[in-house]
Amino acid sequence: TDSSIGIFQNTLTTPTVADSSVYITVKVIFSEDDQIQVGTEKRFGPFEVIAGSPNRIELTPTASDLFATGYETTTISTQVYDQHNNKVEDGTPIAWLNDGSGAITSSETTIMNGVATASYQVGKELTPTLVYATAGEAEKSLTLTKRPVTLTVDSNTQTLNAGTAESAIITASLNETPSEPVPVYWYSSRGELIGSDTLSGTN
After folding, report:
1. Is 41 in contact with 76 (CB distance < 8 Å)?
2. Across all residues in the chain, what is the average pLDDT?
3. C-beta of residue 73 within 8 angstroms of C-beta of residue 105
4. Whole-structure pTM value
5. 127-168: pLDDT as tens digits
6. Which long-range contacts (CB under 8 A, 24 or more apart) does 2-10 make?
7. pLDDT by residue (tens digit) across 45-76?
8. Which of 53, 63, 116, 197 is close enough to 108 for a disulfide, judged by CB 3.0 to 4.6 Å?
């Protein structure tokens, strides 16, 4: 560039890759002024390129179809990118919300290394639940579906003689094995029930 008054303007276009470093070198290649030495140069920098604001969110659950026991959990990981697919800066806020049964029991509210996680605990309803993650102007939703719980109770005998020490084996069974133990509450109008207070297998 040239200038008759010694002021030069240029526009710097930086790379779109975060963590890039840019240096600018200004050099005099010609001058009619004897007081300005041709070949004089000055280097500026580095100018560090950082990620832009959130533009795109990806959500990945450890499980998206849950056994509706009220105790099953899934961990949802989110990755947040700017418009040039750089992971956003550490400390970028992120908000979580669920629409439907169940609850988000814990969540990270800032992004580190482009990632944040949240834990969701399923309810007992079978309607799907939507989980939302929002960072800046970017938002993404994830649909979690539910599988029904069926509980059956069986006994090895229907008849016991009163006044004796006879007993019956009563078995409570679920239609599938839960990934988290499910509490079992026993009740009898007469006699005494002795049994496990959780179901960790199918029965």
Report:
1. no
2. 88
3. yes
4. 0.76
5. 999 999 999 999 999 999 999 998 888 888 888 888 888 888
6. 2/30
7. 898 988 999 999 999 999 999 999 999 999 99
8. 116
What local confidence, expressed as pLDDT, does residue 26 receive? 85
- Residue 103: HSE in the Cβ half-sphere, 13 Å Cα cutoff: 4
Beta strand pairing status for 115-121 and 73-81? antiparallel
Asked if residues 69 and 124 have their Cβ atoms less than 8 Å apart, the reply is yes
- Residue-wise pLDDT for 62-119, tens only, equals 999 999 999 999 999 999 999 999 999 999 999 999 999 999 999 999 999 989 999 9
Per-residue tokens: 196: 């496990």
Q: If we measure between CA atoms, which residue out of 202, 191, 141 comes closest to residue 166?
A: 191
Amino acid in position 146:
K
Q: What distance in Å separates the CA atoms of residue 186 and residue 155, rounded to the nearest whole number?
A: 14
Specify the pLDDT at position 192. 75
